[in-house]
Amino acid sequence: MADADAAKSLSGLLNGIAQKVYHNNPEITEELLKNELYPEMSQDEFSALHEKMKGLIKSIASADMDQGQLDAFLTAQTKRRQGGAGLSSEQAAVLTRFWKSQRPKVREALLNQSRWEPALRGMSWRVDVQAADSKGDTANSGAVALVELELGRMGESSEFVCLEMDEAKVNLLLKKMGDIQQSIDRIVVPAPQKPDEA
Q1: Would you place residue 130 in the very low, low, confident or very high pLDDT band (cuts 50, 70, 90)?
Q2: Could you read off the pLDDT of 24-72 as tens digits, one per residue?
Q3: How far does the chain reach from its first CA to its final CA, in angstroms?
Q4: Does CATH number 3.10.450 belong to domain 119-187?
Q5: Which residue ranges make up each domain of the chain?
Q6: Which of 33, 67, 137, 164 is deepest in the core (most CB within 10 A)?
Q7: What's the burial of 187, exposed, middle or buried (CB within 10 Å: 0-12/13-18/19+)?
Q8: Main-chain dihedrals φ then ψ at residue 149, nearest 5 degrees
Q9: How far apart are CA 39 and CA 19, in angstroms?
Q10: How many CA atoms lie within 13 A of 147 on its CB side?
Q11: Under a CB-based contact definition with an 8 Å cutoff, are residues 117 and 153 in contact?
Q12: Is the dihedral of CA 30, 32, 35, 37 positive or negative?
């Protein structure tokens, strides 16, 4: 029965940490978690447990670990148990159950936190070509690109921005976008291919 209570308390602690860190729930505090889940534990012991679990969750979440990665990570943590810094096998089992149920929610919360606001919700464009007048004057004719951007913040209605560009401005925009892509390509290391993808 004591093991079941310990697992239930740890599960509550992990969920509380996730609520506070990833879902920005202001009602969840370290003090609340201690009083509700570990009232018999000293403040120093609880703070150490809280920080350890928070660090483990952040490591797991930032790597978006799949089941195999999680198993390897937790196995390494249980082997550190001899030094007192690792996890017990019971704690590892609770972390596994927690991550299995919370991974999609935590991943979505991290994606939402990393979005720039306002975000581009949509884009439409067209090219208008002016025809020559009846005298054959083509001095004012040419192609004009019209671009409409739909921008918005989470939970708010969209704003629309319209841009008009001639051929020179379109070429400049395309060049700048190419420069940005090259910069990103220099920074981002492509994920290694799995053997079955090669």
Answers
A1: confident
A2: 899 999 999 999 999 999 999 999 999 999 999 999 999 999 999 999 9
A3: 50
A4: yes
A5: 2-113, 119-187
A6: 33
A7: exposed
A8: -105, 135
A9: 20
A10: 14
A11: yes
A12: negative
Instruction: Give the per-residue SS3 of the chain.
Output: CHHHHHHHHHHHHHHHHHHHHCCCCCCCCHHHHHHHHCCCCCHHHHHHHHHHHHHHHHHHHHCCCCHHHHHHHHHHHHHHHHHCCCCCHHHHHHHHHHHHHHHHHHHHHHHHHCCCCCEEEEEEEEEEECCCCCCCCCCCCCEEEEEEEEEECCCCCCEEEEEEECHHHHHHHHHHHHHHHHHHHHHCCCCCCCHHHC
Whole-prediction pTM: 0.62
Copy the structure tokens of residue 60: 């797991």
Burial of 145 (0-12, 13-18, 19+ CB in 10 A): middle
